[in-house]
């Protein structure tokens, strides 16, 4: 009788462990296509740029054979803009309406990476501008930006949680940022033009800048597009607007 109870308990434990392993297994990666986002105006041209993403060898965990292609839609045959030897979640921001047009490519790694401790060699997020890499952040970088200990990440049998959700592109005046919600609920913001982290204090200052320059535009009597952000010969970011007398560079906020 005792042996039967022991055998039954052993079977139950094995089944529970098997269930946990199965629940923690990864779904096979699949090829996908994703279109670009644009500023709020005009919405009808969203998807002018798109990414075609092809996974590599899923079972080995390597990126062998992985490819990401970035295309521009054309009337006769889409134009290949950039290609990369990796496969991940991709987000595109196509700002080709501004005076300084650019294409932002954001590459996001696994939300629940393999292992139990965040590492430097695990990609969390990377930023590209017009095809060139601006910056990249590892899983360990994300934990540090949250001011947490690496052991603080929630863990399962074979993975740990790093990114809770993608908040996506946000417009702060004419500044564009990309937000992610980390595993602890913190929102991390990145400037897609530079790839640098943007703090809450810096976002507040940018909002104040926008309000100030909007007021200055109204004061000088703008026509057409309200605000133009551009880079002067010294490499500094300046704001201007068009008036009936021509382009006017606005005085910076003190």
Top keywords for this entry?
254 residues; alpha+beta; 4-stranded antiparallel beta sheet; 35% strand
Helical content (DSSP H or I, runs of 4+): 10-25%
Strand order of the largest sheet: 1-2-3-4
How many structural domains in the coordinates? 2
Query: Which assembly state applies to the chains in this document?
Result: single chain
Q: What would you call the structural class?
A: alpha+beta
Annotation, overall tally of beta strands: 15
Q: So how many helices?
A: 3
End-to-end separation:
85 Å
The profile of the biggest β sheet is: 4 strands, antiparallel
| Computed Rg | 24 Å
General shape:
flat
Q: Kindly report the average pLDDT value.
A: 82
Helix-strand sequence: HEEEEEEEEHEEEEHEEE
Low-confidence parts: 12-23
Question: How large a portion of the residues is in β-strands, by DSSP E?
Answer: 35-45%
Descriptive report:
- The chain is of the alpha+beta class.
- Helices cover 20% and strands 35% of the residues.
- The longest helix is centred in the N-terminal third of the chain and has 22 residues.
- The protein is flat and about 65 Å long.
Describe this structure in a few short sentences.
This protein has 254 residues and is α+β, with helices and mostly antiparallel strands. The chain has helices at 2-23, 139-145, 200-220, and strands spanning 32-35, 49-54, 67-72, 79-84, 89-95, 102-108, 123-129, 132-138, 163-172, 175-182, 187-191, 197-198, 228-231, 237-243, 246-249. The longest helix is centred in the N-terminal third of the chain and has 22 residues, at 2-23.
